[in-house]
Each structure stands twice: as C-alpha cells, then as structure tokens.
Amino acid sequence: KWTIADRVYRAVHWCRIRMSDPDRPLPAKRIRSYRLIRPLGRGGMGVVYEAVHEGVGGRAAIKILRVEIASNPAISERFFDEARAANSVEHPSIIRIFDSGQTEDGLCYLAMEFLDGETLAHRIKLLGRLSVASCIRLSRQVASALSAVHGRGVIHREAYVKSNVCSQVDH
Questions:
Q1: Which of 31, 104, 105, 144 is the one with CA 20 to 30 A from 92?
Q2: By the 8 A CB rule, do 6 and 64 touch?
Q3: Global pTM?
C-alpha cells in the first residue's frame, strides 16, 4: 500500500500552511522552467511556492523538499513515490502533479496545479464557524476524496483542516 505522508492530495484541495517568515529568501529563483514567485506554505518536509512556467505562462505550485531531508535517498525516493501514488487517483478534489525531479544542485521538487483559495482552518478562523450545509458539503468532498484514495490502496495519514484548501469553486 502507498502512503501519502506529506499532504500531496487535496481532499477539498491543496495544503497551504502559512509561513512563519513570509519574507524568507527563496532557495532559488528558478526550478527548471518555473520561476518562483512567493512562498505559499511550509510543512514538515518542505516548502510550497507559487510559480510561473516560463514557457507557457501557467501558474503552478512547486513543492521543494528541505535540503537536509532530500540528502537522504530513502526519503527523497518516498517523496517521489508519494507523488506517483497521488497521481494514480483521479478525483476532482485530488491535486494533479505534472512534473517532478531533482535540480543540478540537489533540490527535489514537485510541480502541481496551483489552487487559488484559503485553508479550511483559515476560513473557519475568519467566519467563526461554518454553516451546517457548508460542513456537510465539505465533509462529503473530503470523504469522497479519501474513499477514492483508499480504493486505490493509498493511505493518507494527515487529513486535517490545515491541509485542505477551499478553492473558488467551493464557495
């Protein structure tokens, strides 16, 4: 069975945890054909940046594995295995990863669709609480995504309000 340990799926969309230091310098200005714009969030294994593909101009989210983690071949291989596992499941609430690799200087990255939205935790903080109808709708989306993932033998261990992004289509 596959394990998606670092939130590469989006049951109600993609993980975007706020940076404690949003002015932190970028590790590089570019990752392959992607120009990094700004940090979107940080998790235990890496940082996610908003990026633009230089060739076609499309927006992307680039997840970069922390350097000290990427230096461990077993962990970096798990990072890429989990991306393949996420892409093995087709579901509207599961993020699509369309590129991955390692740069010349050893940065491991995933390029995925960019989601414009807010975390469910942030929405709850802003609104105080969600309506019953919103809770039911969001819970169904999360349950549907988890069911699709589990149906493919993938186990997701970190489904919580900070790892769910509510995009414009969820409003």
A1: 31
A2: no
A3: 0.75
Q: In Å, what is the CA distance from 84 to each residue of 23, 90, 99?
A: 31, 12, 10
- For residue 61, the tally of other CB atoms under 10 A from its CB is 23
* Cα-based torsion angle of the residue sequence 31, 48, 2, 70 in order, rounded to the nearest 10 degrees: 60
Task: Output b/e per residue, 134-155; b: 16+ Cβ within 10 A.
Answer: beeebeebbebbbebbeeeebe
Residues 27 and 25: their CA atoms lie apart, in Å, by: 6
Mean pLDDT in consecutive groups of 10 residues from the start of the chain, 171 residues: 36 32 57 92 86 93 90 90 87 89 89 87 86 90 88 70 58 42
Spatial distance between the Cα atoms of 67 and 107, rounded to a whole number of angstroms: 6
CB 37 within 8 A of CB 49: yes
Positive or negative, the CA dihedral 168, 8, 66, 64 is negative
DSSP count for the chain of H helices, then E strands = 4, 10
